[in-house]
Amino acid sequence: MKSRANHKFSLAIFASIVLLASFASAQSLNSGAQPIALNAQLAESLTVSLSANAVNFTLAGGSTSNPGSTNVTATTTWVLKPGRTQVTVDAYFASAGAALTDGSGNNIPSSAFKISDNGGASSPLVNTVAFGAANAGLRLATVAITGANKNSNRTDNMAFNIDLSGGTLPQLPAATYTGTLNIQAQATP
Amino acid sequence: MKLPAKTRIVALIAVLTTAWIGASAQAVNSGAQTITLNATLSESVSLTLSANAVNFNLTAGSANNPGSTSITATTTWALRPNRGSLSVYAFFANSASALSDGAGNNIPSTDFQISDNGAAFQALTNTVPFGGANAGLRLANVRILGNNKQGSRTDTMNFNINLGTLPSLPAGVYSGTLTIQVQVI
């Protein structure tokens, strides 16, 4: 009786050893984990590109309607950091009194220069904006920046006009008047 | 009967000679001393990398933002019998934020891609033995046979970040840790 019990005990020990051996061989073997540091930089950017860089006007003395020879489309593209809440697009001159000049003291002020943006009403450049001289600008667009448009773009199709009907402009002498209109965007804060 | 003296002397010499010869032919052995020999060829699998950092200059919305360098992972192994296969894995700890700017803006592992040994780029979207769920990619699987229980392999990895599906990712510096690890089963 005792011999049979010993036999069973031995069998149980043997079975346990076999089981443990099978577990040991099923144990996976892992290498050490090797890290690779990743650094990715998405630089902040804000650009404006224009479809053309020159507009001509054939002026008629005293006329309210002296349209530019072509429209110009400004494409503003941005990639912004978190915290930016607004993108603005401004058109401006360096001087409100002499947006265009003949170089001899005869000037066309910015108040006589008008822009229609994307088919909207034609507005003179009489505001103080982020760039340029006081009272020499026009805000073309204000875009609120949210989580959905931190990377985006917009287009402003500008039609130009010079109004020679105001003030002393009906007496503007014949000449060639030149000037530089600037388009610039700003992201804030 | 008494032998003559000469005969007795000859007989004595013969007996002594026989005894001497007998004595010198008998081997004398010491006890056997045993030496137990144990030779262990340890099982091992190791992984080394040619570099530990990769930089990316990202272009917003672009599907093609390659890493600054490729990295070669060299796996070397010496295995016991009964090992069936060896796999090399790449993984992140978290699928949703493989890289992060630390301000809540993340690049998920689905947009991080590896091309192994010139093969097509694949995103880290699988659940592998290491790392986060859906944050891994098995680079290689080697069947272990009798002739490759000791062996090595190299995996040259090229990296890419696909921002085509993340067009609104804000500008920033995004950092993360990609881990390479090997498992033998």
How would you portray this structure in words?
The complex is a heterodimer of chains A (189) and B (185). Chain A has one domain (45-188): Immunoglobulin-like (Sandwich). In chain A, the strands form three sheets. Chain A has a five-stranded antiparallel β-sheet with strand order 3-4-11-8-9, with no helix packed on it. A three-stranded antiparallel β-sheet of chain A has the order 10-5-13, with no helix packed on it. A three-stranded antiparallel β-sheet of chain A has the order 7-6-12, with no helix packed on it. Chain A has 189 residues and is mostly beta strands. Chain A has one helix and 13 strands; from the N terminus they run αβββββββββββββ. Chain A is rod-shaped. Chain B has a domain at 45-168. Chain B starts with a helix and ends with a strand. The model of chain B has no long low-confidence stretch (mean pLDDT 90). Chain A binds chain B through residues 25-26, 28-45, 79-82, 147-152, and chain B through 43, 45-49, 51-61, 65, 67, 71, 73, 75, 79-80, 82-83, 98-99, 101, 103-105, 107, 112, 129-130, 159, 161, 163, 167-185. β2 (34-42) of chain A pairs parallel with β2 of chain B.
Strand order, sheet with most strands of chain B:
1-3-10-7-8
Q: Assembly state here?
A: heterodimer
Please report which band the strand proportion of chain B falls in: under 5%, 5-15%, 15-25%, 25-35%, 35-45% or over 45%: 35-45%
CATH topology of chain A: Immunoglobulin-like
How many helical stretches of chain B? 1
Q: What key attributes describe this structure?
A:
heterodimer, A: five-stranded antiparallel beta sheet, three-stranded antiparallel beta sheet, 13 strands, 39% strand, rod-shaped, B: 185 residues, mainly beta, 11 strands
